[in-house]
Write a structure and sequence with these properties.
The protein is α+β, with helices and mostly antiparallel strands. The chain has three domains: 100 residues, DNA ligase, ATP-dependent, N-terminal domain (DNA ligase i, domain 1), CATH 1.10.3260; 199 residues, DNA ligase/mRNA capping enzyme (D-amino Acid Aminotransferase, Chain A, domain 1), CATH 3.30.470; 124 residues, OB fold (Dihydrolipoamide Acetyltransferase, E2P) (Beta Barrel). The protein is built from 21 helices and 22 strands. The longest helix is centred in the N-terminal third of the chain and has 14 residues. It is globular, with a radius of gyration of 26 Å.
Length: 527
């Protein structure tokens, strides 16, 4: 409950450390299983779960749905409805491993009526807090705002190792056994050390003031800013590991890259970008294609064929076991080029350098970024070392400005977690003739005060409801920003946009002056 009660990372980290320090290994193993995103095969249909709870409370299903829309979490909603006023029951102190093994696991083999009788009997003996945990485990929706990175950090602190080492120990399919849990706290081994990535060097956005102070263009290494996933590829002691910038191990999501790197010389660490790649066009595929790979434990042959991936290397941090970060960018680039000439191109590319004799020429190249499916340019001073984090003046990212469109809000839905009870998730449309067609959903960009104002307006201007979604008067106009636009057969408008967010509420603009589908289609030519 502590994890669900706070949005602060430090509070969540402290709660996890307290729990893992005290919990028996049998329970700790299952806690790691659930908190790292793994889940049991759902033994009960979600619709049955809602129906049974509603029947116990005497509420129709639509009323349970309405309560869910207000609370924002199904497990919590049912716990509040079912356990209101109850005292702690006998299952309150049932160990987690026993709750999973003795109560939940047997449900999978039961007929629906037997399931209903068993679940109803369990609910009758649980207080609200215990019911909440039980419901979370049943529904598989153990979302309490804790990422695997935070779990790794808490376990790493207790084990006295670096977070990267703990992430390496957690890689693969976690087996929730006491022995596996105890092994997390063993002394550091050679395998742990070989898995460690370096802290990433980060760039500052380039603004007008900084551009004036860049000096001679010859002093800079200029590259495309690739639109993929920043990653370090490590080959040490015969093992290949790919780390994302978010300190997540993503090797399993990109098996062809790992397979190619398995044949490389040992003791090398590269910095680069994971990109979906169009072989026919010999350039990156849209980022939306890469998203199909993300979050998967396994990537099958079909997806590998449909979405091939390459690692675009633009820096080398270690070569033959030597740390090269203290050398300048130009020196490291020479080493990278020499090394790249010795390895096959399979699932690997060397990020090209961009030649230009003036900053005006560099700026002109930047304007062509979208046509190349890149985000802009990276500028790296030739003598810059590879810093940990950001150091202003050495690395700059010069991105193209986002696309923007003025669109009309047509639907609204309540948020979840901290935003439960407020309408914060909006659907926006543009005009095609006298008809509004949805083109994007967005839920970020407004201040808390603006959200409350919009929420009040939505409640006063609802025309209809479809489950948790309200249809509102098409009157409010918002400026929406997005990074790219693609044709899409899934959407009625025929378009899909990437990373939509709200820039501002256009109080000054009537709905009839919002943008058209035709104007959005014109952006396809430059995306």
């Amino acid at each position: 409950m502590e994890l669900d009660a706070s949005n602060r990372k430090t509070a969540k980290l402290a709660a996890l450390k307290r729990y893992f320090a005290e919990v028996p290994a049998e329970d700790g193993a299952w806690a790691v299983f659930f908190l790292t995103g793994q889940r049991l095969k759902r033994p009960i249909k979600s619709s049955d779960f809602r129906e049974w709870a509603g029947a116990i409370c005497g509420y129709p299903t639509w009323m349970v749905e309405a309560c869910y829309g207000h609370v924002g979490d199904l497990a919590e909603t049912l716990a509040l409805l079912l356990a209101d006023g109850k005292e702690a029951g006998q299952h309150r102190d049932l160990p987690l491993h026993a709750l999973v093994g003795e109560v939940i696991a047997p449900l999978r083999g039961m007929e629906p009526e037997a399931q209903r009788a068993r679940v109803t009997e369990i609910w009758s003996r649980l207080d609200a807090e215990s019911c909440f945990v039980f419901n979370k485990l049943i529904t598989g929706g153990f979302r309490v705002g804790v990422s695997q990175t935070i779990v790794s950090a808490a376990l790493a602190d207790l084990a006295g190792v670096e977070p990267a080492v703990m992430a390496h120990r957690l890689m693969g399919t976690w087996q929730p056994t006491a022995a596996a849990y105890r092994s997390l706290f063993s002394g550091e081994s050679t395998g742990d050390a070989s898995a460690k990535p370096y802290p990433f060097c980060l760039a500052y956005p380039l603004d007008d003031h900084a551009r004036e102070a860049l000096g001679a263009v010859e002093d800079w290494q200029i590259e495309w800013k690739w639109d993929g996933i920043r990653a370090q590829l490590i080959k040490r002691d015969g093992e290949v590991i790919i780390w994302s910038r978010g300190e997540e191990m993503v090797t399993e999501q990109f098996p062809e890259v790992a397979e190619a790197a398995a044949h490389w010389p040992d003791a090398v660490v590269l910095d680069g970008e994971l990109l979906a790649w169009s072989e026919a066009e010999n350039r990156p595929a849209p980022f939306s294609e890469l998203q199909r790979r993300l979050g998967r434990k396994t990537v099958g042959p079909k997806l590998r064929r449909e979405v091939p991936v390459v690692f675009m290397a633009y820096d080398v941090l270690e070569m033959r076991g030597e740390d090269l970060r203290a050398r300048g960018s130009a020196d490291r680039r020479r080493q990278l080029e020499q090394w790249a000439a010795t390895v096959p191109e399979a699932s690997f590319r060397l990020s090209p350098l961009i030649a230009a004799d003036s900053w005006d020429a560099v700026g002109a190249l930047r304007e062509a970024s979208r046509a190349r499916r890149v985000e802009g340019l990276m500028l790296k001073r030739n003598d810059a070392i590879y810093h940990s984090g950001r150091k202003k003046g050495d690395w700059w990212k010069w991105k193209v400005a986002p696309h923007t469109v003025d669109a009309v809000m047509v639907y609204a839905q309540q948020g979840h977690g901290r935003r439960a009870g407020l309408y914060t998730d909006y659907t926006f449309s543009v005009w095609e003739g006298d008809q509004l067609l949805p083109i994007a959903k967005a839920y970020s960009g407004l201040s808390d005060a603006e959200i409350r104002k919009v929420d009040r307006w939505i409640r006063q201007n609802t025309l209809d409801s479809h489950g948790p979604v309200r249809v509102v008067r098409p009157e409010l106009v918002f400026e929406i920003a997005f990074e790219g636009i693609l044709e899409s057969k899934r959407h009625k408008s025929g378009l899909a946009v990437r990373f939509p967010r709200i820039l501002r509420w256009r109080i000054d603009k009537p709905a009839k002056e919002a943008d058209s589908l035709e104007s959005m289609r014109s952006l396809l030519e430059i995306s």
